[in-house]
Design a protein that fits this description.
Pfam families: Phage_connect_1 (PF05135). This is Head-tail connector protein. The chain has 4 helices and no strands. The chain has helices at 5-12, 20-38, 50-64, 71-93. The protein is globular, with a radius of gyration of 13 Å.
Length: 94
């Protein structure tokens, strides 16, 4: 898992488990989305690259709160991090 449920709650500023049924499927979908978008495969046996962890949090925020005022800024940030992660992946598997 690229980010843990506790990390997701903290990043979304959620103190309780009331939204877990929404958060968990989003967390589970993020690694595939990152892989399709960048080619980076999130490792199962070790921590993901810090850029992948950060982009995962921003994706989660965008998907969880689709009506946020910052959605366009989040999309630009995600796109920039995708570019960086693509280059990281290419340099590691080059």
């Amino acid at each position: 898992m690229i980010i843990k449920l506790e990390e997701a709650r903290e990043f979304l500023r959620i103190d309780d488990d009331y939204a877990d049924e929404i958060i968990i499927p989003l967390i589970n979908a993020i690694p595939s989305y990152i892989e399709v978008s960048t080619g980076y495969k999130c490792p199962n046996d070790k921590e993901a690259h810090p850029v992948a962890q950060n982009v995962a949090k921003f994706i989660l925020l965008l998907w969880f709160d689709t009506q946020t005022e910052d959605s366009e800024r989040l999309r630009r940030t995600i796109d920039s991090l995708f570019t960086a992660l693509t280059l990281i992946n290419e340099s590691n598997h080059g």
